[in-house]
Fold this sequence. Notes:
With 194 residues, the protein is an alpha/beta fold. 32% of the residues lie in helices and 21% in strands. It has 8 helices and 7 strands, in the order H-E-H-E-H-E-H-E-H-E-H-H-H-E-E. Helix 4 (70-76) runs parallel beside helix 5. It binds S-adenosylmethionine.
Amino acid sequence: MLIVNAVVSGLSLAPSDLVLDLACGNGALSSYLFDKCAGLVGIDISPYLIEIAQKNFARSPNYRFCAEDAVSYLVRAGNASIFTKGLIYGAFQYFARDDGVAMLKALKERFSGVQKVFIGNIPNRRRADRFFGELNPTAAELNDHEARMGVWYLPEEFEALAREAGWHASCSYMPAEFDASKYRFDVTLGRPGS
Length: 194
Ligand SMILES: C[S@@+](CC[C@H](N)C(=O)[O-])C[C@H]1O[C@@H](n2cnc3c(N)ncnc32)[C@H](O)[C@@H]1O
């Protein structure tokens, strides 16, 4: 519920919103948002996880899931303008840096109705020692999107990257009772001036 509250509040989620949930996994988190928005489309690269999402959570036609690479979906989706909010939870770090930037740019330029994007649970590079202890990972390991934890970002570095893609970004941190708050952060993107 801490996660649901952070997402709902970060996105200022409203009953009329149509949410694009990128890298939605098995749809469990998405399903907690169903009664707080008018529709949600979840995209994940794993056909297995999407099958679970479809079986357990989909409520056609408004709450549905699709197996596809998120970057491909963002650059080719024909219905881009219907969405009003975006979510990437616990997943941005598993995209190569260039793909991450491409995703933020496509969301800004093609998904013109998306007013806010919540990007959650990003590993905080400044706090990597709190996770790794004395293991001292190399810079290459901290930058590897295929590693178990994915890419570790500095909060200010993420804000700059989002600015480059045309978004205003602000970082936030989960409450202390959320265990991973010690070494993770969230980012809310908004359109400049809105
Ligand atoms: C840790 S899970 C997070 C799932 C979900 N957002 C949640 O919070 O429960 C990361 C997800 O990213 C998905 N993923 C990784 N690369 C992807 C890609 N290129 N396109 C779409 N999904 C991807 C994985 O399949 C996995 O379901």
